Amino acid sequence: MKLLFENWRRYLTESKKDVADKIKEVKFNSALALSVFRDKGTLTEAEANTLEFETSLAENPNEEVVKGFYISLYGGPRAGFLTYYSLDELRMMDLHKLKGHNAGFAIKDGDDIVSVHNNSALSGLANKFMNVAKEVGGMRLDHFDGFLSGLYRKHGFTNVYEIYQWDEQYAPKEWNFEKVNVMDPSTSVYAEALAKHAYEDPSALPNDLVNVQAEGSLDLKINPNLKYNSYRYGRPDVIMRKLN
Fold this sequence. Notes:
Elements: H1 8-11, H2 16-37, H3 45-50, E1 53-56, H4 63-74, H5 87-91, E2 94-98, E3 103-108, E4 112-118, H6 126-135, E5 140-144, H7 147-154, E6 159-164, H8 191-198, E7 210-214, E8 218-222, H9 224-232, E9 238-242
Antiparallel strand pairs: 1-2, 2-3, 3-4, 5-9, 6-9, 7-8
């Protein structure tokens, strides 16, 4: 996977096709999750408690739920995103779809939360989905740094265990290049580490490799000046998180 990123260890062992596939997957899941987490609906706890899930488990797929989840995932206004997961791939996941609604999430490979989506008329589902996802075994997730960083951190995913840095050569097609503030803790894993280098002008950050700790946990080398400008022009890194 990862000629897209400056992770040469993986580059030595994984193909360019794996790179492209992984980036499509991260883009797909990030875009869906953004639509859920940016929804400021006011679903009350009482209302959330009335919602029930239909489930298909990887060890014993329920064909009706698998097909329903597929329709739920790709049947809404955001269906323009690349269709990443096939029916066969969904059969190998634990699927959790709200009964009567095109909304839900999946657990891939036993603990990886993916396909958090809402193509229904309901709103304010983010907390419900994340709480249930953790209850049924969701322990990790990945996303592009930005708005989702602060949201996932609030839900307990504070262990940043790996980062893949942007490489323009492998920018996803139709990438929207939304500006990200690398100096804002709510949108960047680097904010705390770069604060001591920022001075009065963030654009004057050091233009050399420096050692930093992403969110105070992961040691790596970055060029602060390049990172600032990369994020400024909508080119953030991919963040891998686990529950702490």
